[in-house]
């Protein structure tokens, strides 16, 4: 075939498509990667063959049986030739699909004396990943560079026979991987190292040449239905030089043995002639194999060679890629985020196949739900695929999903195909469009037009106020800022300071990871608190998002109590880590006398670590209930915080002087979900209030209080350039709303204090201060208050990335609003109206 003339070829394809694929009428078919699309002539030819010939079960002397055997052997040969594979050097085993071919190879490796080592590339299809469960040792290669490095290390780590598997083309984004790895591995690796090439995705739009048999993979698997649409058949191509690995395969099925002795003796003789005779267990799918003959003929007549299909689809994919990338919202933001390997190029068939994986973004930069895209596509008759695409490694690395996030998404109810496909501002899947031999330029343009019509924001919508734009600056001339952010991952234990610069997620229940865990008494099930166990202050948890663990360190005098000073617990709420006892039973942990649904960790290492540290028999528990399979994180506890009378507008607030019998109605109880914190999702304190308090304490010769004793999450401070001496301690009593960075918060009322604030957070010693001074200066209605209960106000506009992933950061400017000022800010006004 000479130069590929796209336009005239395309015209020919259009004509052919009308004739051969009537079922495509009215559909834009963009799911060729999983195609089952067959030509009309193929079915007609096959049916004619079936009607005019009698095909018997092989392995008997009848004419019909002989006919079947002859046809099957011819077709085997024809299929080998399609891949330029010399029948002297290769054999073909017919299997149900590519996965069955993989399993056949794996069965042989699993039956090796000490098992086998298994390596697989990140881009592998799920069916290749699953092999690891049968291997003695396994490794996932995160990049091509890792593979290259491993190939160079010529030594074969251990004595085990090894199998290295990878896809010739990623079924996720169509990236084509180097085909010379088999040769290189055979050259440099000593010992028994085999290669398995998964060509299921590649061969539907590309030739595969096994002509240089010395360099070919030992095993190659194919999905024939992905090439021809029909029959539903797969094939395993084996290099004859590598067949000895099958000698140890233990299972035998009908048709693969010469003789079997049962009863008193157990003995069998395997067939020895050809590999396919030894491996094709049971009756062959003879009618499918016969259909394959028709499929190869018709395919060639309609499309010519695989090389021609490759050229056509490569050209179309480059156009599709270009069209998708050119889509921009009116404000300039790109619409499609394409998951392309940086090293591959659309238009270059050596490294890129005709598949594009991407996600859509709205004009604010937020992700568009794939479930929504799929619904619209269905209405408009576009056939495409969305979700995890059976490519766990490729999808996770493209989407930047850490294992703990995937497990947490799983625990939160996310499944392949769910409607709920955006978790904490990250998509959990992608959209895949793939082209095939019968794709046309019109498919490409109509898909790009579809995206433009429904997903490109051409005009700035009037209903959304201009401040909603993410390019909008947060308040700059603010007099307040966030001095620090702290969370208390384990209730009543030490704080974890959010590192400066780290955008920290704000959830409905408070700052991310705040009080997700607690320690519960083994006898009573009650959650332990510093009030009774002050040394809990010396248990220091930290959140390591990179490693996906909660790290717990013992500090100070607690280091003398145990030999282990640190443990790590996975952040993922993997149901297997928890004691099954309370999965069905009403959970027994109690916080502030209320029952909570916490799950205790079953690990005795974890329990004894805490038990030894505190000298009280306890378990680590996690909240909320996990693994329930529902998409909502049921949170049975609700905030009881409310505005105190002294905070009401118009009230005087002279410390200690407010009359007990007050005519003002008490604040309404506000119901907000919380985790294990005592009263509300978030606690905010003011630096200048703390400074004022400490001045008074020091004036009396007492010891200044640290911010941590108040268990604050957010410390708001006046900015450095604030006029000295003009601080406003306790101004927070009158704040009703806060804007922190781009997020809004509501103040729920002052926080009542107890003697727990007297535990020194660095030494775990009990003091009198700051409670004594607080009682003298911050007592209202006989109760002592310091700090403000706070909750996040989620914005209504679910399109905005600020809503999909609300975060705040140390240093964020803060604006405080009194009740009467709320209307000054358009967004806040809209939120609270
Ligand atoms: C489709 C596909 C598979 C699985 O093929 P089956 O025929 O469904 O077993 C494996 N790997 C890749 C790359 C694929 O595209």
UniProtKB/TrEMBL annotation:
Cofactor list: pyridoxal 5'-phosphate
Top-level taxonomic group: Eukaryota
Top-level EC class: transferase
Active site (catalytic residues): 390
Listed GO biological process terms: Mo-molybdopterin cofactor biosynthetic process
Pfam families: Aminotran_5, MOSC, MOSC_N
Catalytic reactions of this protein: Mo-molybdopterin + L-cysteine + AH2 = thio-Mo-molybdopterin + L-alanine + A + H2O
Residues recorded with modification N6-(pyridoxal phosphate)lysine: 226
Domain MOSC: 647-817
Enzyme Commission code(s) on record: 2.8.1.9
MF (Gene Ontology): lyase activity; molybdenum cofactor sulfurtransferase activity; molybdenum ion binding; pyridoxal phosphate binding
InterPro entries: Aminotrans_V_dom, MoCF_Sase_C, MoCo_sulfurase, MOCOS_middle, PyrdxlP-dep_Trfase, PyrdxlP-dep_Trfase_major, Pyrv_Knase-like_insert_dom_sf
PROSITE patterns linked: MOSC (PS51340)
The entry's keywords: Molybdenum cofactor biosynthesis, Pyridoxal phosphate, Transferase
Function per UniProt: Sulfurates the molybdenum cofactor. Sulfation of molybdenum is essential for xanthine dehydrogenase (XDH) and aldehyde oxidase (ADO) enzymes in which molybdenum cofactor is liganded by 1 oxygen and 1 sulfur atom in active form.
Entry's family note: Belongs to the class-V pyridoxal-phosphate-dependent aminotransferase family. MOCOS subfamily.
Protein name: Molybdenum cofactor sulfurase
Organism: Melanomma pulvis-pyrius CBS 109.77
């Amino acid at each position: 075939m000479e130069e590929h003339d796209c336009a005239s070829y395309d015209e020919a394809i259009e004509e052919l498509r009308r004739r051969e694929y009537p079922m495509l009428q009215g559909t834009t078919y963009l799911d060729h990667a999983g195609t089952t699309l067959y030509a009309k002539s193929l079915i007609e030819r096959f049916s004619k063959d079936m009607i005019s010939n009698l095909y018997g079960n092989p392995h008997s002397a009848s004419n019909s049986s002989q006919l079947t055997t002859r046809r099957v052997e011819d077709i085997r040969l024809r299929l080998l030739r399609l891949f330029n594979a010399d029948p002297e050097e290769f054999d073909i085993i017919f299997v149900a699909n590519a996965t069955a071919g993989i399993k056949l190879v794996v069965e042989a490796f699993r039956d090796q004396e000490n098992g086998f080592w298994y390596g697989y590339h990140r881009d592998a299809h799920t069916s290749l990943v699953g092999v690891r469960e049968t291997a003695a040792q396994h490794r996932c290669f995160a990049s091509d560079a890792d593979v290259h490095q491993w190939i160079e290390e010529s030594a074969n780590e251990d004595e085990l026979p090894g199998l290295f598997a990878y896809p010739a083309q990623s079924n996720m984004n169509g990236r084509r991987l180097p085909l010379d790895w088999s040769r290189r591995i055979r050259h440099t690796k000593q010992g028994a190292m085999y290669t398995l090439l998964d060509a299921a995705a590649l061969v539907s739009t590309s030739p595969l040449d096994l002509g240089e048999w010395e360099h070919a993979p030992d095993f190659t698997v194919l999905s024939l239905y992905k090439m021809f649409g029909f029959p539903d058949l797969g094939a395993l191509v084996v290099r004859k030089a590598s067949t000895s690995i099958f000698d140890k395969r233990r299972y035998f099925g009908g048709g693969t043995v010469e003789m079997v002795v049962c009863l008193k003796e157990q003995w069998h003789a395997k067939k020895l002639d050809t590999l396919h005779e030894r491996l094709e267990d049971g009756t062959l799918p003879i009618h499918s194999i016969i259909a394959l003959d028709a499929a190869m003929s018709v395919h060639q007549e309609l499309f010519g060679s695989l090389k021609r299909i490759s050229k056509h689809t490569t050209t179309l994919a480059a156009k599709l890629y270009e069209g998708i990338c050119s889509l921009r919202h009116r404000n300039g933001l790109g619409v499609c985020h394409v998951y392309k390997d940086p090293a591959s190029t659309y238009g270059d068939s050596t490294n890129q196949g005709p598949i594009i994986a991407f996600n859509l973004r709205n004009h604010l930069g937020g992700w568009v739900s794939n479930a929504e895209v799929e619904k619209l596509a269905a209405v408009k008759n576009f056939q495409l695929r969305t979700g995890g695409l059976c490519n766990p490694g490729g999808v996770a690395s493209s989407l930047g999903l850490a294992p703990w996030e995937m497990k947490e998404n799983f625990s939160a109810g996310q499944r392949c195909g769910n409607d709920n496909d955006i978790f904490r501002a990250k998509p959990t899947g992608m959209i895949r469009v793939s082209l095939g031999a019968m794709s046309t330029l019109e498919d490409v343009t109509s898909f790009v037009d579809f995206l433009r019509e429904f997903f490109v924001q051409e005009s700035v919508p009037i209903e959304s106020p201009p401040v909603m734009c993410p390019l909008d600056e947060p308040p700059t001339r603010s007099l307040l800022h966030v001095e620090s952010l702290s969370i208390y991952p384990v209730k009543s234990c030490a704080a974890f300071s959010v590192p400066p610069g780290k955008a920290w997620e704000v959830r409905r229940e408070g700052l991310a990871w705040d009080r997700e865990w607690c320690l519960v008494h083994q006898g009573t099930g009650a959650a332990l608190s510093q009030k009774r166990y002050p040394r809990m202050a010396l248990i220091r948890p930290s959140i390591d998002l990179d490693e996906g663990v909660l790290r717990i360190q013992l500090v100070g005098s607690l280091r003398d109590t145990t030999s282990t000073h640190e443990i790590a617990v996975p952040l993922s709420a993997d149901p297997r880590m928890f004691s099954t006892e309370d999965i069905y039973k009403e959970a027994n942990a109690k916080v502030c006398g209320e029952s909570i649904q916490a799950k205790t960790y079953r690990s005795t290492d974890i329990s004894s670590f805490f038990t030894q540290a505190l000298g009280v028999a306890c378990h680590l528990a996690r909240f909320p209930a996990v693994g329930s399979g529902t998409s909502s994180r049921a949170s049975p506890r609700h905030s009881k915080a409310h505005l105190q009378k002294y905070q009401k507008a118009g009230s005087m607030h002279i410390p200690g002087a407010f009359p007990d019998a007050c005519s003002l109605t008490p604040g309404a109880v506000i119901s907000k979900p919380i985790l294990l914190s005592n009263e509300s999702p978030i606690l905010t304190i003011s630096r200048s209030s703390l400074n004022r308090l400490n001045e008074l304490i020091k004036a009396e010769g007492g010891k200044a209080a640290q911010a941590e004793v108040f268990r604050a999450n957010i410390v708001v401070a006046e900015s450095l350039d604030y006029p000295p001496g003009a601080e406003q301690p306790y101004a927070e009593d009158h704040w009703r709303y806060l804007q922190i960075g781009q997020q809004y918060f509501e103040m729920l009322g002052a926080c009542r204090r107890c003697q727990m604030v007297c535990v020194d957070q660095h030494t775990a010693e009990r003091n009198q201060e700051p409670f004594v001074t607080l009682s003298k200066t911050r007592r209202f209605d006989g109760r002592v208050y310091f700090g403000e209960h706070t909750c996040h106000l989620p914005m209504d506009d679910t399109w905005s990335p600020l809503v999909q992933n609300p975060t705040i950061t140390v240093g964020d400017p803060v604006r405080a609003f009194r009740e009467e000022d709320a209307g000054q800010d358009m967004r806040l006004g809209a939120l609270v109206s």
